[in-house]
Amino acid sequence: MYGSMRSLRKSTLFMSALLGGVIFSSCASVPSPSNQALPPSSADRAASINETASSVSQKAEAAPAPRTRAQLIKKASMTVIVNSVDKSIDSVSQIISKQRGDLIGLREQQPTNDSSRHTASIQLRVPQNLLEPTLEEFVKLGTVENRNITAEDVGDRLVDFQARLTNLRKTEANLQKIMDRAGSVRDVLNVAQELSNVRQSIEQIDAQLKNLQNQVAYSTITLNLEAAVSSTSPQRAVGSQIQETWNNSTHSFGAFTIGLLKLGIWLMVYSPYLLILAAAVYGFMRWRRTHSLHLTQTPESADSE
User: Fold this and answer.
1) Burial of 270 (0-12, 13-18, 19+ CB in 10 A)
2) What span is annotated as the signal peptide, if there is one (predicted)?
3) CA-to-CA distance for 133 and 140, rounded, in angstroms?
4) CA–CA separation, 90 and 201 (whole Å)
5) Residue 126 bridge partners (DSSP)
6) Residue 184 and residue 171: Cα distance in Å, rounded?
7) Cα–Cα–Cα angle for 50, 52, 57, nearest 5°?
8) Distance between CA atoms of 171 and 176, rounded to whole angstroms?
9) Which of 57, 109, 187, 218 could pair with 182 in a Cys bridge, judged by C-beta atoms 3.0 to 4.6 Å apart?
10) Rounded distance between C-alpha atoms, residue 209 and residue 204, angstroms
11) How would you classify residue 51: left for phi > 0, otherwise alpha for psi between -120 and 50, otherwise beta?
12) Residues 6+ apart with CB under 8 A from 144
C-alpha cells in the first residue's frame, strides 16, 4: 500500500516538472509584448528627423535652380546689294520710323571712277524684340550679300552692378546718420568726404547700369548698301555722243529763243516807262547842247561890239 502511494507521488512530480518545463519553454519562445508596444525613443525620433531633413536637403540641392531670363546685348550687321542707294536710304528711313527705332549715323560714298560703286553705311538701333522683323524688312530692299547677328549675355554684370549699387546706398544712408551724430568739425569733414566718394561711386555705377540696360533694350544694326552696278557710265560710242551734242545744242537754241521772246515781252510791257526815260534823256541832252551853243555865241557878240 505504501509502495503504490510512493509510486503515484513520483509520477505526479514528474508530470508537474514536465508540464512546467513545457510552459517555461513556451513562455521563453514567445516574444515579449511589452517590447513591441514600446514607443520610439527621442534619439530615434531625432535620427528620423535628421534623415528626413537630409533627404529634403539633398533633393533641394539636386533640384535645379530656376533660370532667369538672359540679358542679351544683340548686334547685327547686313550688306544688301540694291538698284538705287538713294531710294534705299529713303526706304530705310521709313522702316526705322515704322519700327520705332533711331538713326545713329549715315555715311555715304559717291563713286569716284568707273570701277567704284555708290555705297552707304547706316547705323541704327531698334527695340530688341523688333530686331528680327526689322532685318526681314531690310531683306526686301535687294539681294543680301551677308548677314551676321551676335549676342552677349550681361546678366551677371547687371546683377553685380545692382548689388554694388544697393550696398553703396546702404553705406550712404549709414554715413548720413553718422554725419548727423558727429560732434566735432573734423569728424563732420571726414564723414562728408567719405559720403562724397560714396555718392560719386553710386553715380558711376548707376550710369554703367543704365547703359547696360539700354543696350539690352535696344539692338544695334549696321546696314551696308551697295549699288548693283557702277553709277558712272562707261565710254559711249561716237554716234551717241554726236546725237547728244545735237540734242543739247537744239535745246540750248530753243531756250535762248524763248529767253529773247520773254525779254521782248518785258520790254513791251515797260515801254511807256522806257519812252519817258528816253524822252527825258533826249530833252536833257538837247537843252545842254542849246545852252552850250548860247554860251559860245555870247562872247563872240561881245567881241564884235
Assistant:
1) exposed
2) 1-28
3) 11
4) 44
5) 219
6) 21
7) 90
8) 8
9) 187
10) 9
11) alpha
12) 78, 79, 80, 81
Is the backbone of residue 26 left (phi > 0), alpha (psi -120 to 50) or beta?
Answer: alpha
pTM, entire model: 0.49
- Rounded to an integer, the average pLDDT of 131-152 is 90
Confidence of residue 288 (pLDDT cuts 50, 70, 90): confident
The grid cell for 71 is 540679358
**Phi/psi-derived region of residue 82, left when phi > 0, alpha when psi is between -120 and 50, beta in every other case:** beta
Q: Where do the H-state alpha helices sit in the chain? A: 2-29, 33-37, 42-62, 85-98, 131-139, 155-181, 185-217, 238-269, 271-304
Distances (CA, A) of 149 to 93, 113, 247: 21, 33, 52
For residue 230, pLDDT over 60 is answered with no
- Kindly report the number of other CB atoms within 10 A of residue 234's CB atom: 6
100 backbone φψ class: left, alpha, beta (φ>0; ψ -120 to 50): left
Check if the beta carbon of residue 75 is closer than 8 Å to that of residue 220: yes
Which residues, listed in sequence order, are joined to residue 123 by a DSSP beta bridge?
A: 105, 222
Chain length of the chain:
305
- What pLDDT score does 186 carry? 81
Place of cell 554716234: 239
Model pLDDT, residue 50: 41
Residue 152 gets which letter from DSSP? E
Do 93 and 103 form a contact (C-beta atoms < 8 A)?
A: yes
As a whole number, mean pLDDT of residues 259-280 equals 86
The dihedral region occupied by 233, where left means phi > 0, alpha psi between -120 and 50, and beta the remainder, is: beta
| Mean pLDDT, range 234-238, rounded to an integer | 60
